[in-house]
Amino acid sequence: MINKVTNALLLSLAIQLNGCASPLPKAISQVPPTEIRVEEVRQQPERFLGSRVRWGGSIIQVENLPQHTLIELLSRPLSGNGKPDSSGRTQGRFLARIPGFLDPEEYPKERLLTISGTIAGTTQRTIGDYPYLYPLVESEIHHLWPDQREARDWRNRDPFYDPWYPWGSPWYRHPYYW
């Protein structure tokens, strides 16, 4: 009887924990067989036309058009799970074309985004007065990463004041506590 109850509780816990996890799309979490860099496409765009890529970076601008949304990204190196490394060296800029409408308020500037799709060519735009050749990626799937500034970490909290704990931090006692 106890084994059945224990097994039922463990199964229930496993299902609940699995429901809390937000799995990444397969195209985002898997490393592509060939890694193509933004600089390579800028130098030889015709060579990489139609190639599959998984790129990511910081959002610079969101532009909504009648049929799709263009997102300008500052490319960053990706970690193993596909998350852009915001502290990493930039690799240039690129445009992601995503079908439909994306609200610019939900995709704000400097937010991290990873896309997976095919290279559809290049587009000439200017940055200030400088002409810049943007690789254009036809996005099949994209993943907006949670804002790290909003995520709270207990190690970064003020030890003298913690609004989530009624008597201050549970890890630190104030000198005047006693």
UniProtKB/TrEMBL annotation:
Keywords for this entry? Lipoprotein
What the entry lists under Pfam families is as follows: Slp (PF03843)
Question: Quick one: a GO cellular component term?
Answer: outer membrane
Task: Report if keyword Translocase is assigned.
Answer: no
Database matches in NCBIfam families: slp
In Swiss-Prot or TrEMBL terms, this protein is called Outer membrane lipoprotein, Slp family
